[in-house]
Amino acid sequence: MIRTAALGLMIGLASSPGLTAEQDPQTGFIIAPGWETVRNNCIACHSSKLVTQNSGSREHWLSLIRWMQEKQGLWPFDAKTEETILTYLSSAYGPKEGARRPPLRAAQLPENPYRQPPAQ
Ligand code: HEC
């Protein structure tokens, strides 16, 4: 009962405008400049979910595109289209901030009795 109410609240929040980015109901793509270009080029072979579940920098998206072009039969894009796609993906599905903390530096780590002394 409480769970159902909480779920209802979450759905209510998610669908109220302003709190979350507007999404295309068919594909789930966030509506932002360039989303139609991505829809037109990125859902012929797999679900849009594969795209929306991924995230990362421009370089990450570019390397995925190059991999699909080399290995999966993705067609080449002209420079403008590629630019539109990369800008859209890296801003709507950019690197997740705060998902992981950066690694500690060696000096911040606790004393490690097993650490080898630096070689002479
Ligand atoms: C010509 C077919 C084709 C098109 C068009 C295509 N892809 Fe893919 N893509 C693939 C295949 C095949 C896979 C691997 C699917 C699998 O692992 O099930 C894949 C996998 C992916 C993955 C998952 C990669 C991973 O790390 O698992 C992402 C993200 C992705 N594609 C994004 C895109 C984007 C963005 C576009 C548009 C620019 C696009 N795809 C267009 C064929 C395509």
From TrEMBL:
InterPro entries to which the protein is assigned, alphabetical: Cyt_c-like_dom_sf
Source organism, top-level taxon: Bacteria
GO MF terms held by the record: electron transfer activity; heme binding
Residue ranges of the region described as Disordered: 93-120
Signal peptide region: 1-20
Keywords, comma-separated and alphabetical: Signal
Protein name as catalogued: Cytochrome C
Organism per entry: Oceanimonas baumannii
Lineage: Bacteria, Pseudomonadati, Pseudomonadota, Gammaproteobacteria, Aeromonadales
